[in-house]
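## retry 2 of 3
previous attempt timed out at serialization; input unchanged, resubmitting
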Amino acid sequence: MAKFYKRLIWIQIGLLVLLFGIPKLIAAESALNKAMQPYSIEYDVIAKGDKVGTASQSLEQLTNGQWQIAMQSKIKYYFFKDKRQETSRFDLIDDQIFPIQYQRVADSSFKDSNLLQQFDWQSGHETGSYKDQKWTIELADGSLDQLTQLIALRTQLMSQKPLKPIIISYRGSSRVNNFKVVGQETIKTPLGEINTAKIQLDEKGGKRQTNYWFALDKQMLPVQIQRIKKGKEEARLVISKW
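## retry succeeded, writing output
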């Protein structure tokens, strides 16, 4: 009889795991799946209250099964011109993002800053180049690049759990980005008012700050991005089309 009751208890425990464990797993998968839905967004670039250019961001799955997130911008402000394109190809394996290649090509009035990073997860190394600098470094587990970190951030937001630090590899070294939820905010855009979650990232000891506004009702897509340096706004991207 004692053995029977022990078996009954273990059966009950198993049922509790099924009832409460599976929904959590499904919720995590759902957040990632929503973040991986292809999209295309266009932005106006605003500086000192004026529109000075346009930008776009997109996510798509390639014919070989890999994914690509890309961002382009074109700015003209008086004598200053800047045109750049960023792309990141990556694999999605067992609910984890594995960057394959990140590339930034920039053409500016004052300087060019082309950057290339190639991730070899089998060997556990990254090779890269920036201007005259070249490197080969060990990859930290979970390392992302500047673009794929946005997907990880959106996934965390949609899972409705506390934000975790995100490790990115940049210019031959690793950095840990700690994002902070500022709160909910309704912003005005050319598409009307959008309810958003405002997220903040402080960089370089607080000298630089990037604020993101993610649409609450649209898979947490980034609808506004603001760059601040020494307390002053450098530029702001505001959604114009999706």
